[in-house]
Amino acid sequence: MYCKRIAAVALLASTASAQTFYDVIQQQPTLSLFATIIKNFNTTFNEIISSISASELRTILVPNNEAVASYLRQSNIRSAAQISSEVVRPFLSYHVLMNNVSSKDFSQPGGSIVESALKDPEFALLKDNAGQVVFAHKAVEAAQQAKDAAVEVKSGIGESVRIVQSNIQFDQGQFHVVDGLLTLPINCSKTIARRGAERLVTYIGRVNLLDALDGTPGATCFAPSDAAIESALPVLMNLTDAELVDAIKFHTLLDPYYTKDLTDGQLVETALAGRSVRVNIVGEDYYFNGVKAITTNDIVRNGVAYVLDGQRSAKEHDNNKECHVDKYRYEHKYGVRGDGHLSREHCDRRRRKWHYLYANCKWHTEWCR
Which positions fall inside the FAS1 domain (predicted)? Predict the structure, then answer.
């Protein structure tokens, strides 16, 4: 009996894998709304699928009926058949992923970055004309409760959906059912403003760097939160435009660094020539020059963003005895000793300042001892 059951399952799997994507989803009642979209825009969907090399298998994220119905209500659209073609193409493109990616691949330690078929420059401005990406990882609360933790897929503006059914085969790959629609990425400046760093955007606009921030292909933006900017206002108000430009460049990397690309102790070069950022990883938390990231892997049109809260890693606090700063700027203003170091007392009082205005400071073993 057991052998017969295995044979039956294998037969069903082989039958499903021989069917087209539409044939498989129309057989599942919970996917009927998405099936309607595919039926109405079959030509568009086939063009997207065909844009991937014929030798590659595809992976598709399929929103269930609840997810599509929620989108229709929020968009004041009466039925799935009434979705416009202008909306459908980028929407479908973002849900079609390159290669054959299983739920196990998605839930690798550190998460996974997967490229999609979305290359519309309104939503994807990456190097080498690469497709926009999603970030997939195990849900933290689920990982603490069960070995088979749910997988979340993060898209634009920090929004995530959860995989509720996985590894369903069709003739050109497999698909996973998700409980929401992926959110199309928007500009970095708009994303970080919505994620809690609106005041930084104001300062970037002051020195006319918004176009550079949003128009540099494949970049990483570190964005101090509004609360962090508030705490640094006395210093920010006295910065010259040139100093502010340097500080902003120091918060920018010229390649997209997702958490999957980072290791503890890693030094990453910034857009400010000769300056690097040190990465520290403590459990699930990421620190950049000792500043904790309160959001990570925020997918933006031209790369990725992190919002920072300004709190230092505890292990760095224990090790920092004195703060070293570049003599050419600070020694007269702050009474730095002749060896270029601040006393511990002065360091403690000004430490938050260095975290946000360290464009002319060296970090960790170089200026914190």
Answer: 18-182, 185-312
> What region does 299 belong to: left with phi over 0, alpha with psi -120 to 50, or beta?
beta
- Structural contact between residues 24 and 170, judged by C-beta atoms closer than 8 angstroms: yes
Which fold is adopted by the domain 2-178? FAS1 domain (2.30.180)
Span between the terminal Cα atoms of the chain, in Å: 70
Q: β-pairing, 160-170 with 151-154?
A: antiparallel
- Closest-CA residue to 229 (of 306, 307, 157, 299): 307
Tokens of 362: 């060296």
- Residue spans per domain, the chain: 2-178, 188-360
Q: What is the pLDDT of residues 284-304, one digit of tens each?
A: 899 999 999 999 999 999 999
Alpha-helical runs (H) found in the chain = 2-17, 21-25, 32-40, 42-50, 65-74, 85-95, 103-106, 140-143, 188-194, 198-206, 210-215, 226-231, 233-236, 241-250, 314-319, 327-334, 344-356
d(CA 223, CA 17): 45
35 vs 26, 153, 177, 333, CA distance in Å? 6, 21, 12, 67
Kindly provide the b/e burial profile for residues 237-249, where b requires at least 16 CB atoms within 10 angstroms of the residue's own CB. Answer: eebeeebbbbbbb
| This model's pTM is above 0.85 | no
- Identify the CATH class of 188-360: mainly beta
Strands 58-63 vs 96-97: parallel, antiparallel or unpaired: antiparallel
Q: Would you list the DSSP string of 226-268? A: HHHHHHTHHHHTT--HHHHHHHHHHTEESS---GGG--TT-EE
In the predicted model, is pLDDT for residue 52 greater than 90? no
d(CA 147, CA 140): 11
DSSP letters along 53-76, please? Answer: -TTS-EEEEEE-HHHHHHHHHHTT
